[in-house]
Write a structure and sequence with these properties.
The chain is α/β, with parallel strands linked by helices. It has two domains: 115 residues, Rossmann fold (3-Layer(aba) Sandwich); 93 residues, Rossmann fold. Helices cover 32% and strands 20% of the residues. The chain has a four-stranded parallel β-sheet with strand order 2-1-5-6. A hairpin with a 5-residue loop joins strand 3 and strand 4.
Length: 229
């Protein structure tokens, strides 16, 4: 059975992110989190300052946590080293960009998959991005700077029970052709709310990554007739 590592920037387990993989019983998921072993006296060093790139994730308690990317990367690298020896591939359970990480283990990066899908959709000339935090909006524009069309960004957190409808309607009214829910914390519920409110196509990284893992690593059933015959 293929074993896939799920590496979150917060604490594991993340049942919300792992849920889409449950549809594939022939794939084993092993989870790890960058903040799994953080002690109380280490938290202060992880909190973002005014100039830091800010990421948001979830603790085991369900509480959201804001993290400095600069402080996060070394912890992710350590967990990746540990996880990589136990699995066939690792999914980075975050849509952020992590060029600083290096490993011989095959990696699946949501940000690269999502951007590749969007660039393959020729009908998209105005991209709508939904992100968790207002302070991420400027960074998100930089992340998508090479997108050839227009970009609009709005925020709605997937971690505080917020309904994304209002933010999604803002993106639609600004002219978006497609909305990307640019965080692994967004669930099918968020996608369905956005789609219902805007009648626009929506890209959900959670389901896109799960489908990619299934396509690459799920083993075919032995039964069935050969369609070539």
């Amino acid at each position: 059975m293929p074993r896939i590592g799920l590496l979150t920037i917060g604490q594991s387990p993340r049942s919300d992110i792992a849920a889409p993989f449950a549809r594939f019983p022939d794939i084993d998921i092993l989870e790890a989190g960058a903040l799994d072993d953080v002690s109380e006296d280490q938290w202060a060093a992880l909190l973002p300052s005014a100039d830091d790139v800010v990421y948001i994730s979830k603790l085991r308690t369900g509480a959201p946590v804001r993290i400095s990317k600069e402080a996060l990367v070394p912890r992710l690298a350590d967990k990746l080293d540990q996880l990589g020896n136990k699995v066939d591939a690792v999914v980075m359970a975050c849509t952020g960009s992590f060029p600083e990480l290096s490993t011989r283990t095959p990696m699946i990066y949501p940000d690269q998959l999502v951007s590749g899908v969007v660039r393959g959709l020729t009908f998209v000339s105005h991209l709508g991005l939904l992100v968790p935090l207002p302070e991420q909006m400027h960074h998100m524009r930089e992340k998508w700077l090479d997108f050839p069309g227009r970009i609009s960004v709005a925020s709605s957190s997937p971690y505080d029970g917020s309904d994304p409808t209002e933010a999604a309607i803002k993106l639609r009214d600004q002219g978006a052709d497609l909305i990307v829910l640019d965080c692994m914390g967004y669930s099918p519920w968020h996608r369905d709310r956005v789609r219902a409110a805007t009648d626009l196509p929506v890209v959900l990284p959670q389901s896109l990554i799960a489908a990619t893992v299934q396509e690459c690593f799920s083993r075919p059933e032995a039964k069935g007739s050969d369609p070539r015959v």
